[in-house]
Amino acid sequence: MSAIRTIVFHCIAGLRSLVPFFVQLREVGARYTRTDLQWILLILVLAGVLRFPFLDHPANPQFDEVVYSRYAVNLLDGIPAFDIHPPLVRMLFAVIAQESEPFSMRSFPIPAFSNQPFLDFPYIPLRTTVAFFGTLLPLLLYGISRLLGATPRWAGLVALFVVIDPAFIVYSRAILPDTILLAVEMGALLAALAAVQSETTRGKVGFALLAALALGAAVSIKWIALSIVGVVGLLYLFHRRWKTILATGVVMAGVYVSSFLMLSLSFFPYGGVTDPLIPAYDVPWVRGLVFPAHPSVSDALTTMRDWHEVSIKTNQNIELNTEILQAPGPTTWAVAKSSIIFWIDGTGGAIWLQGNALLWNLAFFLFLFEIGWIASQVRSRRVWPIDHTETILLLGYIGSYLPFFFINRPMFLYHYFLALLFLFLLVPKVAPRAIACLGSVTNDALFAKVFSIVILLLILVASLISFPVVYGF
Length: 473
Hints:
This protein is mostly helical. Helix content is 65%, strand content 3%. The strands form two sheets. The chain has a two-stranded antiparallel sheet with strand order 1-2. A two-stranded antiparallel ribbon has the order 3-4. Helix 8 crosses helix 19 (417-442) and helix 10 packs antiparallel against helix 11. The longest helix has 26 residues, at 242-267. The radius of gyration is 23 Å and the shape is globular. Residues 1-28 have low confidence and may be disordered.
C-alpha cells in the first residue's frame, strides 16, 4: 500500500496549494451575517445527531453493504473485482478499512440478508465516513441556496429537508457510495456558483478548479453524475465561460483516468482474473476481463478500455439485468410510492429506505405548479418569466430524473436523490409564488401562511414517526 500513501501524500500537497483560493470565500461570504452562522450550527448539530449515533447497529450488512465490503476486501487482497461503476469510492472504502484495526474476515455472503455478522471487519469506520458526508450534504445545500439568493430562513429550510428526511438519513448510515456522490456533486455546484460570482481572477480560477476536481471525482464514482456535469456546464454557458468549460473537461478527464490508473497500478499490481462478486455478473465476458501483472501505464490504460467495454455490455444485457433485484420504476419515486428493505433481523427489527411521503409529494407538486405558472406567464406575457439560475435548477431536476425512464436496467429509489435535491433548491423560488397564489384564491393571505406552516409541521411529524424503521430498533 506504499503507492497509495504516496498518491495520498501528493493529493494532500496539491490541496495545500489551493489554500489561497479559499481566502476568496470572503468575497462571496462578505454579505453573510451572524444568522448564517446560527443556521449552519443548527444544521450541523441536527444532521450529526441524526446520523452518527448507533452506527454499530445492525452489526450485519444492510442492503448492498455486503457488496461494497467484499469489494474492499478484494482491493486490499489485490484480487481484481468487477463492478459496473467506476472505482473511486470503492478505493476510498478500502483505504479506510486498511487504516483501521487489522481484521481477519475475508468472506461476505452474496446475496445480502443472510444475517452473517461483520465480526471484526471495520464496518463502523466505513459507516462513519459515509455519515460525515451525509452531515456535510445539507450544509452544502444551505450554501448553494444562499449563493442562489435565498434568505437564511429559506436556505435553512432547504437544508432541514435533507436533515430530517428518513431516506437521506438511512443512506447516510450505510457503506454505500451515493451519499458521498451527492455531497461531491453539491460541492461541485457550490464551487461553480462561487466561481461565476467571484470578482477576482484568483477566485474565478480557484473555485472553477475545485468544481472541476469535484465533477471529475463524481463521474469517477458513478456515471449518473454526468447530469450534474450538464448543470454546471449550463451555468458556465449562461455566463459565457467558454475557457472554463474547456478546462473543466480536461481536469475531469484527468481525474477520471487517474482513478483507473490507481486501481490497476496500486491495488492490482499482480493482476489476475476478475472476480464478478455477485452471481448476476458471473458471465464469460466478465470472467474474461484480466488485469495484467506489474502493469505499465499503457497496460493500465488498455485495461481501463477493456473494463469500459465489459461494463457497457453488462449494463445493456437485458437477460442479465433480470437477475438483479427488481424494484418499482421511476414513476413511483417522485410521489414516494417506492421503498427498499435494507435490513431485517427476523424478530421485528427492520430498516427501510423510504422518503418522507408528504415532503416528496409537496416538492413534486411545487414542480408541477412551477411548470403551470411558467406556461401561463409565457402565454400571457410572451416572455420567459424566470431567471437563468431558476431555469438551471428546473433543467437540473428534469435532466437528473428523466433519463432513468430510458435506462434498460433495474433502477432504485436512491437514483432519485439528486433530482430531489434540485426540487428542494427550487423551493425558495417557487413556494412564495404558490403561497401567494393560495392567498389570492382564498382571498386570505394569513390563511395561506398558516396553512404552509401546518404543512411544515406535518412534514416534521412524518419524519419523526418513521424513525423506528430508520434506525432498526
